[in-house]
Design a protein that fits this description.
This protein is α/β, with parallel strands linked by helices. The chain has three domains: about 90 residues, 2-Layer Sandwich (Gyrase A, domain 2), CATH 3.30.1360; about 200 residues, HUPs (Rossmann fold, 3-Layer(aba) Sandwich); about 140 residues, Isoleucyl-tRNA Synthetase, Domain 1 (Orthogonal Bundle). Helices cover about 50% and strands about 15% of the residues. It contains 21 helices and 16 strands. Strands 6-5-4-10-11 form a five-stranded parallel β-sheet. Strand 4, helix 5 and strand 5 form a beta-alpha-beta unit. Helix 4 packs across helix 18, helix 5 packs across helix 14 and helix 16 crosses helix 20. The radius of gyration is 28 Å and the shape is globular. About 45% of the residues are buried. About 5% of the residues have low confidence.
Length: about 575
Protein backbone atom coordinates (compact mmCIF):
# COMPACT_ATOMS: atom_id res chain seq x y z
CA UNK A 1 0.00 0.00 0.00
CA UNK A 2 1.02 3.61 -0.53
CA UNK A 3 1.33 5.91 2.48
CA UNK A 4 -2.01 7.52 1.60
CA UNK A 5 -3.74 4.14 1.52
CA UNK A 6 -2.20 3.24 4.88
CA UNK A 7 -3.41 6.50 6.36
CA UNK A 8 -6.90 6.02 4.90
CA UNK A 9 -7.19 2.63 6.57
CA UNK A 10 -5.88 3.99 9.87
CA UNK A 11 -8.21 7.03 9.82
CA UNK A 12 -11.20 4.86 9.03
CA UNK A 13 -10.32 2.61 11.95
CA UNK A 14 -9.78 5.57 14.28
CA UNK A 15 -13.12 7.10 13.31
CA UNK A 16 -14.93 4.03 14.62
CA UNK A 17 -18.26 3.19 13.06
CA UNK A 18 -18.76 5.14 9.86
CA UNK A 19 -21.87 5.06 7.64
CA UNK A 20 -21.94 2.53 4.82
CA UNK A 21 -20.34 3.87 1.67
CA UNK A 22 -18.60 6.67 3.58
CA UNK A 23 -15.32 7.59 1.92
CA UNK A 24 -12.26 8.64 3.87
CA UNK A 25 -10.47 11.40 1.98
CA UNK A 26 -6.83 12.19 2.63
CA UNK A 27 -5.48 15.46 1.23
CA UNK A 28 -1.95 16.73 0.69
CA UNK A 29 -1.77 20.27 2.17
CA UNK A 30 0.22 22.87 0.28
CA UNK A 31 1.67 24.33 3.48
CA UNK A 32 3.98 22.19 5.60
CA UNK A 33 2.60 23.59 8.87
CA UNK A 34 -0.76 22.03 7.98
CA UNK A 35 0.78 18.56 7.92
CA UNK A 36 2.13 16.24 5.28
CA UNK A 37 -1.34 14.73 5.01
CA UNK A 38 -4.67 15.87 6.41
CA UNK A 39 -8.29 14.74 6.62
CA UNK A 40 -11.58 16.57 7.17
CA UNK A 41 -13.44 13.41 8.15
CA UNK A 42 -14.48 14.87 11.52
CA UNK A 43 -16.50 17.61 9.86
CA UNK A 44 -18.24 15.09 7.63
CA UNK A 45 -19.07 12.81 10.54
CA UNK A 46 -20.34 15.62 12.80
CA UNK A 47 -23.97 15.57 11.53
CA UNK A 48 -24.17 11.79 11.94
CA UNK A 49 -22.49 11.63 15.34
CA UNK A 50 -24.17 14.85 16.52
CA UNK A 51 -20.91 16.10 18.06
CA UNK A 52 -18.75 19.17 17.40
CA UNK A 53 -16.22 18.44 14.62
CA UNK A 54 -13.26 19.51 16.74
CA UNK A 55 -14.18 16.98 19.46
CA UNK A 56 -14.38 14.19 16.89
CA UNK A 57 -11.05 15.36 15.41
CA UNK A 58 -9.38 15.19 18.84
CA UNK A 59 -10.47 11.59 19.35
CA UNK A 60 -9.31 10.56 15.87
CA UNK A 61 -5.95 12.32 16.36
CA UNK A 62 -5.36 10.60 19.71
CA UNK A 63 -6.17 7.18 18.25
CA UNK A 64 -3.92 7.73 15.25
CA UNK A 65 -1.07 8.81 17.53
CA UNK A 66 -1.40 5.50 19.41
CA UNK A 67 -1.81 3.34 16.29
CA UNK A 68 1.14 0.92 16.28
CA UNK A 69 0.80 0.28 12.54
CA UNK A 70 1.74 3.94 11.96
CA UNK A 71 4.57 4.08 14.47
CA UNK A 72 7.33 3.97 11.85
CA UNK A 73 5.60 6.45 9.54
CA UNK A 74 3.88 9.11 11.64
CA UNK A 75 5.70 11.53 13.94
CA UNK A 76 2.71 13.39 15.35
CA UNK A 77 -0.98 14.04 14.73
CA UNK A 78 -2.76 17.30 15.47
CA UNK A 79 -6.42 18.29 15.63
CA UNK A 80 -7.11 21.90 14.66
CA UNK A 81 -10.31 23.95 14.37
CA UNK A 82 -12.80 23.64 12.91
CA UNK A 83 -12.13 19.89 12.75
CA UNK A 84 -9.10 19.02 10.65
CA UNK A 85 -6.71 16.21 11.53
CA UNK A 86 -3.16 17.01 10.40
CA UNK A 87 -0.64 14.20 10.10
CA UNK A 88 3.12 14.78 10.16
CA UNK A 89 5.50 12.09 8.86
CA UNK A 90 8.67 11.03 10.66
CA UNK A 91 11.92 12.41 9.28
CA UNK A 92 13.46 8.95 9.59
CA UNK A 93 10.69 7.46 7.46
CA UNK A 94 11.11 10.18 4.84
CA UNK A 95 14.86 9.50 4.73
CA UNK A 96 14.28 5.78 4.33
CA UNK A 97 11.74 6.43 1.58
CA UNK A 98 14.23 8.60 -0.31
CA UNK A 99 16.70 5.72 -0.27
CA UNK A 100 14.04 3.36 -1.59
CA UNK A 101 13.17 5.76 -4.41
CA UNK A 102 16.77 5.55 -5.59
CA UNK A 103 16.72 1.76 -5.36
CA UNK A 104 13.43 1.42 -7.27
CA UNK A 105 14.50 3.83 -10.02
CA UNK A 106 12.16 3.84 -13.00
CA UNK A 107 9.83 1.43 -11.17
CA UNK A 108 9.08 4.08 -8.55
CA UNK A 109 5.47 5.23 -8.86
CA UNK A 110 4.23 2.00 -10.43
CA UNK A 111 1.80 -0.24 -8.58
CA UNK A 112 0.27 -3.69 -8.42
CA UNK A 113 -3.52 -3.15 -8.28
CA UNK A 114 -5.80 -5.22 -6.11
CA UNK A 115 -7.72 -6.06 -9.27
CA UNK A 116 -6.03 -5.70 -12.63
CA UNK A 117 -8.35 -4.25 -15.25
CA UNK A 118 -8.43 -4.58 -19.01
CA UNK A 119 -8.81 -0.95 -20.06
CA UNK A 120 -9.40 0.65 -23.42
CA UNK A 121 -8.67 4.33 -23.92
CA UNK A 122 -10.19 5.60 -27.17
CA UNK A 123 -9.01 9.05 -28.17
CA UNK A 124 -8.48 11.42 -31.08
CA UNK A 125 -10.69 9.35 -33.45
CA UNK A 126 -10.98 12.30 -35.84
CA UNK A 127 -12.65 11.64 -39.16
CA UNK A 128 -10.04 10.77 -41.82
CA UNK A 129 -11.28 13.67 -43.92
CA UNK A 130 -8.69 16.31 -43.09
CA UNK A 131 -5.62 17.18 -41.02
CA UNK A 132 -5.70 16.89 -37.23
CA UNK A 133 -6.77 20.05 -35.39
CA UNK A 134 -5.48 21.56 -32.16
CA UNK A 135 -8.49 20.07 -30.36
CA UNK A 136 -7.47 16.65 -31.70
CA UNK A 137 -4.01 17.27 -30.28
CA UNK A 138 -5.48 18.16 -26.91
CA UNK A 139 -7.40 14.89 -26.77
CA UNK A 140 -4.41 13.01 -28.11
CA UNK A 141 -1.93 14.13 -25.47
CA UNK A 142 -4.42 13.87 -22.60
CA UNK A 143 -5.49 10.40 -23.77
CA UNK A 144 -1.90 9.21 -24.02
CA UNK A 145 -1.15 10.53 -20.50
CA UNK A 146 -4.22 8.74 -19.14
CA UNK A 147 -3.04 5.50 -20.76
CA UNK A 148 0.47 5.93 -19.31
CA UNK A 149 -0.88 6.49 -15.80
CA UNK A 150 -3.17 3.46 -16.04
CA UNK A 151 -0.24 1.32 -17.18
CA UNK A 152 1.84 2.61 -14.25
CA UNK A 153 -1.07 1.70 -11.97
CA UNK A 154 -0.72 -1.90 -13.16
CA UNK A 155 -3.57 -2.23 -15.64
CA UNK A 156 -3.65 -3.80 -19.11
CA UNK A 157 -4.24 -0.82 -21.41
CA UNK A 158 -5.10 -0.53 -25.11
CA UNK A 159 -4.79 2.85 -26.85
CA UNK A 160 -7.30 2.96 -29.70
CA UNK A 161 -8.21 5.26 -32.56
CA UNK A 162 -11.71 4.71 -33.97
CA UNK A 163 -11.51 5.35 -37.71
CA UNK A 164 -14.77 6.79 -39.08
CA UNK A 165 -14.19 5.40 -42.57
CA UNK A 166 -17.90 4.87 -43.32
CA UNK A 167 -20.79 7.25 -43.74
CA UNK A 168 -21.40 10.55 -45.44
CA UNK A 169 -18.30 12.38 -44.25
CA UNK A 170 -15.86 10.26 -46.26
CA UNK A 171 -18.09 10.44 -49.34
CA UNK A 172 -17.89 14.21 -49.07
CA UNK A 173 -14.09 13.97 -49.05
CA UNK A 174 -14.17 11.84 -52.20
CA UNK A 175 -16.63 14.30 -53.73
CA UNK A 176 -14.32 17.20 -52.87
CA UNK A 177 -11.56 15.50 -54.88
CA UNK A 178 -13.86 14.84 -57.84
CA UNK A 179 -15.00 18.46 -57.77
CA UNK A 180 -11.35 19.50 -58.20
CA UNK A 181 -11.42 17.54 -61.46
CA UNK A 182 -14.69 19.12 -62.59
CA UNK A 183 -16.68 15.91 -62.10
CA UNK A 184 -20.31 16.45 -60.92
CA UNK A 185 -20.86 15.32 -57.31
CA UNK A 186 -24.00 14.59 -55.22
CA UNK A 187 -23.32 17.33 -52.64
CA UNK A 188 -23.55 21.13 -52.79
CA UNK A 189 -20.23 22.96 -52.93
CA UNK A 190 -20.58 24.46 -49.43
CA UNK A 191 -20.68 20.94 -47.91
CA UNK A 192 -17.39 19.84 -49.49
CA UNK A 193 -14.04 19.91 -47.68
CA UNK A 194 -11.71 22.73 -48.64
CA UNK A 195 -8.09 23.62 -48.18
CA UNK A 196 -4.71 22.96 -49.72
CA UNK A 197 -4.80 19.35 -48.53
CA UNK A 198 -7.81 18.66 -50.83
CA UNK A 199 -5.92 20.12 -53.76
CA UNK A 200 -2.93 17.94 -52.84
CA UNK A 201 -5.14 14.84 -52.71
CA UNK A 202 -6.66 15.65 -56.09
CA UNK A 203 -3.22 16.09 -57.62
CA UNK A 204 -1.95 12.89 -55.95
CA UNK A 205 -4.87 10.76 -57.21
CA UNK A 206 -5.27 12.40 -60.62
CA UNK A 207 -2.65 10.21 -62.31
CA UNK A 208 -4.56 6.99 -61.62
CA UNK A 209 -8.19 8.10 -61.36
CA UNK A 210 -8.93 11.44 -63.07
CA UNK A 211 -11.29 10.70 -65.97
CA UNK A 212 -10.39 11.88 -69.45
CA UNK A 213 -13.93 12.07 -70.82
CA UNK A 214 -17.60 12.16 -69.93
CA UNK A 215 -18.79 9.48 -67.50
CA UNK A 216 -22.05 7.58 -67.33
CA UNK A 217 -23.98 7.72 -64.06
CA UNK A 218 -22.78 4.23 -63.09
CA UNK A 219 -19.18 5.12 -63.95
CA UNK A 220 -19.40 8.31 -61.91
CA UNK A 221 -20.78 6.44 -58.86
CA UNK A 222 -18.07 3.80 -59.20
CA UNK A 223 -15.40 6.49 -59.48
CA UNK A 224 -16.77 8.24 -56.38
CA UNK A 225 -16.55 5.00 -54.41
CA UNK A 226 -12.99 4.35 -55.56
CA UNK A 227 -11.73 7.89 -54.99
CA UNK A 228 -13.46 8.04 -51.59
CA UNK A 229 -11.61 4.90 -50.54
CA UNK A 230 -8.25 6.10 -51.84
CA UNK A 231 -8.61 9.62 -50.45
CA UNK A 232 -9.65 8.26 -47.05
CA UNK A 233 -6.68 5.87 -46.98
CA UNK A 234 -4.33 8.70 -47.92
CA UNK A 235 -5.68 10.98 -45.19
CA UNK A 236 -5.53 8.17 -42.65
CA UNK A 237 -1.89 7.62 -43.59
CA UNK A 238 -1.19 11.30 -42.93
CA UNK A 239 -3.00 11.14 -39.59
CA UNK A 240 -1.00 8.07 -38.54
CA UNK A 241 2.23 9.84 -39.48
CA UNK A 242 1.41 12.92 -37.40
CA UNK A 243 0.12 10.89 -34.44
CA UNK A 244 2.99 8.43 -34.21
CA UNK A 245 5.95 10.41 -35.59
CA UNK A 246 5.27 14.07 -34.85
CA UNK A 247 3.16 13.79 -31.68
CA UNK A 248 4.88 10.59 -30.48
CA UNK A 249 1.61 8.93 -29.46
CA UNK A 250 1.79 5.11 -29.68
CA UNK A 251 -1.55 3.71 -30.86
CA UNK A 252 -2.21 0.01 -30.29
CA UNK A 253 -5.30 -0.27 -32.50
CA UNK A 254 -6.80 1.58 -35.45
CA UNK A 255 -10.37 0.28 -35.40
CA UNK A 256 -12.30 0.63 -38.67
CA UNK A 257 -15.98 1.65 -38.57
CA UNK A 258 -16.49 -0.34 -41.76
CA UNK A 259 -15.45 -3.51 -39.92
CA UNK A 260 -18.60 -3.22 -37.82
CA UNK A 261 -20.73 -3.68 -40.92
CA UNK A 262 -18.53 -6.42 -42.36
CA UNK A 263 -18.83 -8.41 -39.14
CA UNK A 264 -22.58 -7.91 -38.93
CA UNK A 265 -22.39 -5.98 -35.65
CA UNK A 266 -24.61 -3.14 -36.85
CA UNK A 267 -27.42 -5.48 -37.97
CA UNK A 268 -27.03 -7.39 -34.71
CA UNK A 269 -27.39 -4.17 -32.72
CA UNK A 270 -30.51 -3.15 -34.63
CA UNK A 271 -32.10 -6.53 -33.91
CA UNK A 272 -31.23 -6.24 -30.21
CA UNK A 273 -32.75 -2.74 -30.05
CA UNK A 274 -35.90 -4.08 -31.70
CA UNK A 275 -36.04 -7.12 -29.43
CA UNK A 276 -35.91 -4.90 -26.35
CA UNK A 277 -38.52 -2.54 -27.85
CA UNK A 278 -36.09 0.39 -27.72
CA UNK A 279 -36.83 1.65 -31.24
CA UNK A 280 -39.90 2.62 -33.24
CA UNK A 281 -40.51 3.24 -36.94
CA UNK A 282 -41.62 6.72 -37.96
CA UNK A 283 -41.53 8.52 -41.32
CA UNK A 284 -39.73 5.56 -42.87
CA UNK A 285 -36.84 5.78 -40.36
CA UNK A 286 -36.01 3.87 -37.20
CA UNK A 287 -35.94 6.00 -34.05
CA UNK A 288 -34.29 5.28 -30.71
CA UNK A 289 -36.77 5.85 -27.87
CA UNK A 290 -34.27 8.06 -26.11
CA UNK A 291 -36.80 10.00 -24.04
CA UNK A 292 -37.90 6.78 -22.35
CA UNK A 293 -34.42 5.42 -21.52
CA UNK A 294 -33.38 7.59 -18.59
CA UNK A 295 -33.47 11.06 -17.15
CA UNK A 296 -30.94 13.62 -18.23
CA UNK A 297 -30.94 12.71 -21.92
CA UNK A 298 -32.24 14.82 -24.81
CA UNK A 299 -36.01 15.25 -24.79
CA UNK A 300 -36.42 14.07 -28.37
CA UNK A 301 -35.90 10.61 -29.80
CA UNK A 302 -33.00 10.08 -32.21
CA UNK A 303 -32.80 8.44 -35.61
CA UNK A 304 -30.66 5.31 -35.66
CA UNK A 305 -31.51 4.17 -39.21
CA UNK A 306 -32.36 6.81 -41.82
CA UNK A 307 -35.25 6.52 -44.24
CA UNK A 308 -32.76 5.55 -46.97
CA UNK A 309 -31.70 2.52 -44.90
CA UNK A 310 -28.32 3.95 -43.92
CA UNK A 311 -27.30 3.97 -40.23
CA UNK A 312 -27.28 7.33 -38.47
CA UNK A 313 -24.10 8.38 -36.65
CA UNK A 314 -25.13 6.99 -33.25
CA UNK A 315 -25.84 3.41 -34.38
CA UNK A 316 -22.22 2.43 -35.24
CA UNK A 317 -21.13 4.01 -31.93
CA UNK A 318 -23.56 1.80 -30.01
CA UNK A 319 -22.43 -1.29 -31.94
CA UNK A 320 -18.77 -0.36 -31.44
CA UNK A 321 -19.17 -0.06 -27.67
CA UNK A 322 -21.12 -3.30 -27.42
CA UNK A 323 -18.12 -4.92 -29.08
CA UNK A 324 -15.75 -3.25 -26.60
CA UNK A 325 -17.53 -4.61 -23.56
CA UNK A 326 -18.70 -7.83 -25.24
CA UNK A 327 -16.41 -9.78 -27.54
CA UNK A 328 -13.32 -7.73 -26.66
CA UNK A 329 -14.02 -7.95 -22.89
CA UNK A 330 -12.72 -4.60 -21.75
CA UNK A 331 -13.65 -4.05 -18.12
CA UNK A 332 -13.17 -0.29 -18.28
CA UNK A 333 -13.66 1.92 -21.33
CA UNK A 334 -12.59 5.57 -21.43
CA UNK A 335 -13.66 7.76 -24.35
CA UNK A 336 -12.23 11.19 -25.12
CA UNK A 337 -14.71 12.99 -27.37
CA UNK A 338 -14.51 16.38 -29.03
CA UNK A 339 -16.87 19.12 -27.88
CA UNK A 340 -18.97 18.53 -31.00
CA UNK A 341 -19.84 15.05 -29.68
CA UNK A 342 -21.87 16.24 -26.70
CA UNK A 343 -24.99 14.63 -28.13
CA UNK A 344 -23.22 11.27 -28.45
CA UNK A 345 -22.00 11.58 -24.86
CA UNK A 346 -25.62 11.99 -23.71
CA UNK A 347 -27.12 9.24 -25.85
CA UNK A 348 -24.51 6.49 -25.64
CA UNK A 349 -24.55 5.60 -21.89
CA UNK A 350 -28.34 5.17 -21.49
CA UNK A 351 -28.61 3.33 -24.81
CA UNK A 352 -25.90 0.85 -23.80
CA UNK A 353 -27.35 0.39 -20.33
CA UNK A 354 -30.78 -0.31 -21.84
CA UNK A 355 -29.12 -3.04 -23.91
CA UNK A 356 -27.59 -4.55 -20.76
CA UNK A 357 -24.09 -3.29 -21.48
CA UNK A 358 -21.79 -1.25 -19.21
CA UNK A 359 -21.30 2.40 -20.15
CA UNK A 360 -17.99 4.12 -20.94
CA UNK A 361 -16.43 6.98 -19.01
CA UNK A 362 -16.61 9.98 -21.33
CA UNK A 363 -14.37 13.05 -21.24
CA UNK A 364 -15.28 15.96 -23.51
CA UNK A 365 -12.43 17.99 -25.01
CA UNK A 366 -13.39 21.65 -25.28
CA UNK A 367 -12.12 23.86 -28.07
CA UNK A 368 -8.62 25.34 -28.31
CA UNK A 369 -7.71 28.83 -29.50
CA UNK A 370 -4.16 29.56 -30.63
CA UNK A 371 -3.12 32.98 -29.34
CA UNK A 372 -0.16 34.89 -30.76
CA UNK A 373 0.68 38.47 -29.72
CA UNK A 374 -2.66 38.68 -27.95
CA UNK A 375 -4.65 37.77 -31.06
CA UNK A 376 -6.23 34.51 -32.16
CA UNK A 377 -4.59 32.70 -35.07
CA UNK A 378 -7.43 31.42 -37.23
CA UNK A 379 -6.12 30.60 -40.67
CA UNK A 380 -3.96 27.73 -41.84
CA UNK A 381 -2.11 27.34 -45.10
CA UNK A 382 -2.73 23.62 -44.94
CA UNK A 383 -6.37 23.39 -43.90
CA UNK A 384 -7.67 26.75 -45.01
CA UNK A 385 -9.89 27.35 -41.99
CA UNK A 386 -8.00 26.08 -38.94
CA UNK A 387 -4.45 25.61 -37.67
CA UNK A 388 -3.38 21.98 -37.83
CA UNK A 389 -1.66 20.05 -35.05
CA UNK A 390 1.32 19.43 -37.30
CA UNK A 391 1.71 23.15 -38.02
CA UNK A 392 1.74 23.88 -34.28
CA UNK A 393 4.34 21.18 -33.58
CA UNK A 394 6.52 22.43 -36.43
CA UNK A 395 6.20 26.03 -35.17
CA UNK A 396 7.39 24.95 -31.70
CA UNK A 397 10.51 23.36 -33.15
CA UNK A 398 12.56 20.46 -31.81
CA UNK A 399 10.79 20.43 -28.44
CA UNK A 400 7.36 20.85 -30.01
CA UNK A 401 5.85 17.60 -28.79
CA UNK A 402 7.12 18.10 -25.22
CA UNK A 403 5.83 21.66 -25.01
CA UNK A 404 2.48 20.90 -26.63
CA UNK A 405 1.96 17.91 -24.35
CA UNK A 406 2.56 20.00 -21.24
CA UNK A 407 0.36 22.90 -22.34
CA UNK A 408 -2.53 20.63 -23.32
CA UNK A 409 -2.26 18.36 -20.29
CA UNK A 410 -2.07 21.17 -17.70
CA UNK A 411 -5.64 22.34 -18.42
CA UNK A 412 -8.69 20.26 -17.52
CA UNK A 413 -10.35 19.07 -20.74
CA UNK A 414 -13.79 20.48 -19.89
CA UNK A 415 -12.52 24.08 -20.03
CA UNK A 416 -11.93 26.19 -23.13
CA UNK A 417 -8.25 26.76 -23.69
CA UNK A 418 -6.10 29.58 -25.04
CA UNK A 419 -2.77 28.17 -26.22
CA UNK A 420 -0.18 30.92 -25.64
CA UNK A 421 2.18 30.52 -28.59
CA UNK A 422 4.69 33.08 -27.28
CA UNK A 423 5.07 31.33 -23.92
CA UNK A 424 5.23 27.93 -25.62
CA UNK A 425 8.13 29.13 -27.79
CA UNK A 426 9.98 30.70 -24.85
CA UNK A 427 13.02 28.54 -24.09
CA UNK A 428 13.70 30.06 -20.66
CA UNK A 429 12.50 28.67 -17.34
CA UNK A 430 9.44 30.94 -17.64
CA UNK A 431 8.12 28.14 -19.81
CA UNK A 432 6.79 25.59 -17.27
CA UNK A 433 7.91 22.48 -19.15
CA UNK A 434 11.45 23.84 -19.50
CA UNK A 435 11.46 24.81 -15.82
CA UNK A 436 10.88 21.16 -14.89
CA UNK A 437 13.25 19.83 -17.55
CA UNK A 438 15.96 22.23 -16.35
CA UNK A 439 15.54 20.83 -12.83
CA UNK A 440 16.04 17.30 -14.17
CA UNK A 441 19.06 18.36 -16.22
CA UNK A 442 20.56 20.05 -13.15
CA UNK A 443 20.20 16.80 -11.19
CA UNK A 444 22.08 15.00 -13.95
CA UNK A 445 24.79 17.68 -14.01
CA UNK A 446 25.35 17.37 -10.25
CA UNK A 447 25.61 13.60 -10.51
CA UNK A 448 28.06 13.86 -13.43
CA UNK A 449 30.20 16.30 -11.46
CA UNK A 450 30.14 13.94 -8.47
CA UNK A 451 31.28 11.09 -10.67
CA UNK A 452 34.13 13.16 -12.11
CA UNK A 453 35.18 14.02 -8.58
CA UNK A 454 35.21 10.42 -7.42
CA UNK A 455 36.92 9.23 -10.61
CA UNK A 456 39.78 11.59 -9.77
CA UNK A 457 40.69 9.53 -6.69
CA UNK A 458 43.12 6.68 -7.08
CA UNK A 459 41.27 4.56 -4.57
CA UNK A 460 37.54 3.99 -4.78
CA UNK A 461 36.01 5.56 -1.69
CA UNK A 462 32.72 4.81 0.02
CA UNK A 463 30.73 7.25 -2.12
CA UNK A 464 31.93 5.63 -5.32
CA UNK A 465 30.88 2.23 -4.04
CA UNK A 466 27.42 3.64 -3.43
CA UNK A 467 26.77 4.48 -7.09
CA UNK A 468 24.77 2.91 -9.84
CA UNK A 469 23.16 3.76 -13.15
CA UNK A 470 19.93 5.63 -12.40
CA UNK A 471 16.56 4.14 -13.19
CA UNK A 472 15.55 7.35 -14.96
CA UNK A 473 18.03 6.69 -17.75
CA UNK A 474 21.20 8.44 -16.59
CA UNK A 475 24.34 7.58 -18.50
CA UNK A 476 26.40 8.41 -15.41
CA UNK A 477 26.74 6.67 -12.08
CA UNK A 478 24.64 7.99 -9.25
CA UNK A 479 24.27 7.58 -5.55
CA UNK A 480 22.57 4.52 -4.07
CA UNK A 481 22.59 3.80 -0.38
CA UNK A 482 23.40 0.33 0.83
CA UNK A 483 20.96 0.96 3.65
CA UNK A 484 18.24 3.46 4.39
CA UNK A 485 20.46 5.07 7.06
CA UNK A 486 22.73 6.51 4.35
CA UNK A 487 20.10 9.21 3.69
CA UNK A 488 19.62 11.88 6.33
CA UNK A 489 16.85 14.49 6.48
CA UNK A 490 18.04 17.28 8.77
CA UNK A 491 17.53 20.58 6.92
CA UNK A 492 14.00 21.98 6.31
CA UNK A 493 14.68 22.14 2.56
CA UNK A 494 15.74 18.48 2.57
CA UNK A 495 12.50 17.62 4.31
CA UNK A 496 10.47 19.79 1.94
CA UNK A 497 11.99 17.99 -1.03
CA UNK A 498 11.43 14.45 0.23
CA UNK A 499 7.91 15.44 1.30
CA UNK A 500 7.17 16.02 -2.40
CA UNK A 501 9.05 12.99 -3.70
CA UNK A 502 7.06 10.49 -1.65
CA UNK A 503 3.76 11.65 -3.20
CA UNK A 504 4.23 10.13 -6.67
CA UNK A 505 2.71 6.68 -6.00
CA UNK A 506 -0.38 8.29 -4.48
CA UNK A 507 -0.74 10.61 -7.46
CA UNK A 508 -0.56 7.66 -9.86
CA UNK A 509 -3.32 5.78 -8.03
CA UNK A 510 -5.49 8.88 -7.65
CA UNK A 511 -5.23 9.82 -11.32
CA UNK A 512 -5.83 6.23 -12.45
CA UNK A 513 -9.28 6.60 -10.89
CA UNK A 514 -10.08 10.27 -11.50
CA UNK A 515 -8.33 10.56 -14.92
CA UNK A 516 -7.32 14.11 -13.93
CA UNK A 517 -3.87 14.08 -15.51
CA UNK A 518 -3.50 17.86 -15.16
CA UNK A 519 -2.33 17.17 -11.59
CA UNK A 520 0.87 15.71 -13.06
CA UNK A 521 2.01 19.12 -14.30
CA UNK A 522 1.32 20.68 -10.91
CA UNK A 523 3.15 17.88 -9.12
CA UNK A 524 6.18 18.03 -11.42
CA UNK A 525 6.38 21.79 -10.88
CA UNK A 526 6.14 21.37 -7.09
CA UNK A 527 9.00 18.85 -7.15
CA UNK A 528 11.13 21.18 -9.28
CA UNK A 529 10.44 24.09 -6.88
CA UNK A 530 11.31 21.97 -3.85
CA UNK A 531 14.51 20.87 -5.55
CA UNK A 532 15.40 24.49 -6.34
CA UNK A 533 15.04 25.37 -2.64
CA UNK A 534 17.14 22.33 -1.68
CA UNK A 535 19.85 23.23 -4.21
CA UNK A 536 19.92 26.81 -2.88
CA UNK A 537 20.04 25.89 0.81
CA UNK A 538 21.92 22.58 0.91
CA UNK A 539 25.33 22.43 -0.83
CA UNK A 540 25.61 18.94 -2.29
CA UNK A 541 29.27 18.54 -3.23
CA UNK A 542 30.73 19.86 0.00
CA UNK A 543 30.79 18.95 3.66
CA UNK A 544 31.72 15.62 5.16
CA UNK A 545 31.41 12.42 3.16
CA UNK A 546 28.29 11.27 4.98
CA UNK A 547 26.46 14.50 4.22
CA UNK A 548 27.63 14.49 0.61
CA UNK A 549 26.49 10.90 0.12
CA UNK A 550 23.10 11.67 1.65
CA UNK A 551 22.50 14.75 -0.48
CA UNK A 552 23.64 13.03 -3.65
CA UNK A 553 21.05 10.35 -2.89
CA UNK A 554 18.41 13.08 -2.62
CA UNK A 555 19.54 14.46 -5.98
CA UNK A 556 19.25 10.98 -7.50
CA UNK A 557 15.81 10.49 -5.94
CA UNK A 558 14.71 13.83 -7.40
CA UNK A 559 16.06 12.93 -10.82
CA UNK A 560 14.15 9.65 -10.65
CA UNK A 561 10.86 11.30 -9.65
CA UNK A 562 11.14 14.05 -12.26
CA UNK A 563 12.01 11.57 -15.02
CA UNK A 564 9.19 9.23 -14.04
CA UNK A 565 6.64 12.03 -13.75
CA UNK A 566 7.62 13.51 -17.11
CA UNK A 567 7.45 9.99 -18.53
CA UNK A 568 3.84 9.66 -17.34
CA UNK A 569 3.07 12.65 -19.56
CA UNK A 570 5.14 11.36 -22.47
CA UNK A 571 7.57 14.27 -22.04
CA UNK A 572 11.30 13.72 -22.39
CA UNK A 573 13.66 14.18 -19.44
CA UNK A 574 16.87 15.64 -20.94
CA UNK A 575 20.22 15.13 -19.23
CA UNK A 576 21.60 18.40 -20.59
CA UNK A 577 19.98 21.67 -21.63
Amino acid sequence: MTVEQQLQEAVKKAAGKVPAGFSVEISMPDRAEMGDYATSIAMKLAPTLKQPPIEIAKVIAERLQKDKTLAEIVDRVESVPPGFVNIFLRDEWLAAKAGKIVQEGERYGTAEPQKKQKVQVEFISANPTGPLTLANGRGGFIGDAIARVLIAAGHDVTREYYVNDGGEQVKKLGSAVLAQWGVPVPYPEDELYKGAYVEDLAEQLAKDYKPSGTLTEDERLQLLETVTREATNAMLGEIKRVVTKKARIPMDEWYSEKSLERRGLIIETIKELQRKNLVQEKDGALWLKLSALSEGTDDSDKVVVKSNGQPAYILPDIAYHRDKFGARRFTRVIDLFGADHQSTAKILPPALQALGSPAPEILLMQMVRLISDGKEVKMSKRAGTFVTLEELLDELGESGSDVARWFFIERTPNTHMNFDLALAKDTSDKNPVFYVQYAHARCCAILRKAQQHTNGHENENEMTRKTRKGGGGLSVKSTRSKSDSAVRVTHPSERGLVRELVKLPDFVLRISESLEVHHLTTYATDVAKAFSAFYRDCPVLSGDEEQMTSRLALVQATQTVLANTLGLMGIRAPETM
